[in-house]
Design brief:
Strand order of the largest sheet: 1-2-3-4-5-6-7-8
CATH topology: Porin
CATH class: Mainly Beta
Radius of gyration: 17 Å
Length: 175
């Protein structure tokens, strides 16, 4: 597990060193059982391509859609991703990309007659598509993502994982 975290850290650090700064902002990702709130920084690698890094918090309330009758919790995470703007050079238009996040979640669960807590490391790869608009004060991008929540390490009982769809909004300041 330490190797995986180390590799993830190296990927994030390398992305920041390999490109020129393009902007920073905030990001929200809504999914059926939760919300991810993150800070977002972007680095240009070509006229129409960028890498981004994010750090944030994943709030989840899975109800009975997990492996128990009720699951809720949350935790911090880090992510790295790639976006390509089809209009080029950050212009208004369609975009697509991919990302991978690593979250460290504390999930409280309940079943009839029992309850507990599980610490889970979740790998969340996803592909995304969307549209971006340039504003006088920055840039806003709306995205739809499809991916998976994969529990790669669990301390406690197993909790929910599987396919995930997300609706996202990213705001970059001062573009």
């Amino acid at each position: 597990m330490k190797r995986l975290f180390g590799l993830f850290f190296v990927l994030i650090a390398s992305a920041g060193c390999a490109a020129s700064p393009q902007g920073w902002g905030t990001e929200l990702q809504l999914y059926p059982s939760g919300l991810i709130v993150a800070g977002h920084t972007r680095y240009s690698i070509s006229q129409d391509e960028s890498l981004f890094l994010r750090a944030g918090y994943n709030f989840t309330d899975r109800g009975n859609s997990g492996k128990h009758e009720d699951e809720e919790g949350g935790g911090p995470g880090l992510g790295v991703g790639y976006r390509r703007n089809l209009a080029g050079d950050g212009a208004q238009g369609w975009l697509y990309g991919a990302r991978v996040d690593l979250f460290f979640l504390d999930i409280d669960w309940k079943d009839t007659g029992s309850q507990g807590s599980s610490d889970v490391i979740v790998l969340q790869p996803a592909v995304e598509g969307g549209y971006g608009w340039n504003l006088a004060s920055g840039r806003i991008e709306l995205t739809l993502s499809a991916g998976a929540e994969i529990n790669i390490d669990t301390n406690g009982e197993d909790v929910g994982e599987g396919a995930i769809g997300l609706l996202g909004v990213t705001y970059l300041f001062g573009r």
